[in-house]
Here is the input.
Amino acid sequence: MIVGQVLSQDNSKLRSLARRVVGCRRCPRLVRHREASAATPPRRYRGQVYWARPLPGFGDPEARLLVMGLAPAAHGGNRTGRMFTGDRSGDWLFRALHEAGFANRPTSTGIGDGFRLRGAYITAALRCAPPANKPMPVELGRCQPFLLEELALLKRVRVVVPLGKIAWDGYLRARRALGQPLPRPLPKFGHGAVARMPDGIILLGCYHPSQQNTFTRKLTRSMLRAVFRRAAGVRS
Here is the structure.
């Protein structure tokens, strides 16, 4: 049921990919952590049934904008079953996407609440919540095939916004693995960094809207809003 609800429009290949993502158990450390998080939740979430499985990407299969995060939060997406849904990072991200015209509403608390992306798709470098939000390189490598298949299926993407350096580097590695051209020298991550790929795709750097960044004001709402408004203005 949830796999069918994560996509804004029907796309059989993305649905097939989502089902395979959900069934993945390749990383024992991540399996243990996602299930332990569900078994011993914080008091505010006690009594809720956790998703506690890998998360597929979600959004519009005809997306021009691809947003790439790091990984689900243990008590956010790992709880609700949808990336960025149910945590503070998602609150910031969805509001900014709505303000730029990429979402039909500024908030989302769970699947079935009516939230929909328009012209945008959200994915991540890692599909399971990692301990301390720190994935191991081998885990990112095991997850990469899912991202490669996703990128190949999202044929209309013209702008990519990686949230943080790990996502930025992960997108560049994915392009290399797919045999897609890369600029030389490789562009470096930074908030507000802009890089044009040889095939015309625009890469816009953005700090991750984690509480570590938002509480310290390393990332402000206006900074986040500016990135997505710039993404909305890209026409080719």
Q: What stands out?
A: The chain has one domain: 2-233. Residues 2-233 form a domain with the Uracil-DNA Glycosylase, subunit E fold (CATH 3.40.470.10).
